[in-house]
């Protein structure tokens, strides 16, 4: 009886360890630099650093404040959309200020260049990332697309 119980315990422990080893949760941190191109509305985007670490991102929705966005599209090996993420463009920062009458007003401050970090829940199916600036108010989008293999 003790032998069967020990054998069952070893089997359960082995199966649990195997399930954990299949694919641990990982977070991918990407650090970019974005700069305005002189004499135009386009941007230059450069990857500065990429790190993948163990961990899980909690589901957290970030409220958007500006019409200028950066749209991340992550594709799988078949070039199908696996995940999409939209963030405020770091070159257009929303600032709130108090007016003398006590009201709060939102202003948009613009910069020539900025660094920013994005974190994504990483899976081995992610193969390609594209990043494109977008303005929700503009009728025509004429920005270049940044693309990289993951």
Determine the CATH topology.
Immunoglobulin-like
Gross geometry: elongated
CATH class: Mainly Beta
Beta-strand level of the residues, as a percent range? over 45%
Please name the CATH architecture.
Sandwich
Strand order of the largest sheet: 4-3-8-9
Q: How many separate domains make up the residues?
A: 1
Distance, first to last CA:
52 Å
Helical amount: 10-25%
Total DSSP E strands: 9
Pick out the low-confidence regions: none
> What's the tally of helices?
1
Keywords: Signal
Signal peptide: 1-21
Q: How would you describe what is shown here?
A:
The chain is mainly β. It has a single domain (2-149), classed as Sandwich (Immunoglobulin-like). Helices cover 14% and strands 50% of the residues. Strands 4-3-8-9 form a four-stranded antiparallel beta sheet, with no helix packed on it. A three-stranded antiparallel beta sheet has the order 2-1-7, with no helix packed on it. The mean pLDDT is 80.
Keywords for this entry:
mainly beta, Immunoglobulin-like, 4-stranded antiparallel β-sheet, 3-stranded antiparallel β-sheet
Indicate the topology:
Blueprint: H1 2-22, E1 26-36, E2 43-54, E3 68-75, E4 81-88, E5 92-98, E6 104-110, E7 113-122, E8 128-135, E9 146-149
Antiparallel strand pairs: 1-2, 1-7, 3-4, 3-8, 5-6, 8-9
């Amino acid at each position: 009886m003790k032998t069967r119980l020990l054998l069952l315990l070893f089997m359960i422990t082995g199966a649990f360890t195997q399930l954990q080893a299949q694919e641990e949760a990982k977070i991918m941190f990407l650090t970019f630099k974005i700069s305005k191109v002189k004499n135009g509305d386009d941007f230059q985007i450069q990857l500065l650093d990429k790190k993948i670490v163990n961990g899980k991102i909690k589901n957290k929705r970030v409220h958007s404040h500006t019409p200028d966005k950066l749209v991340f599209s992550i594709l799988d090996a078949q070039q199908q959309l696996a995940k999409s993420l939209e963030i405020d463009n770091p070159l257009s920062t929303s600032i709130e200020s108090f007016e003398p009458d006590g009201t709060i007003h939102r202003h948009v401050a613009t910069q020539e260049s900025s660094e920013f970090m994005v974190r994504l829940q990483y899976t081995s199916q992610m193969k390609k990332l594209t990043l494109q600036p977008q303005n929700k108010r503009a009728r025509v989008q004429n920005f270049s697309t940044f693309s990289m293999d993951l």
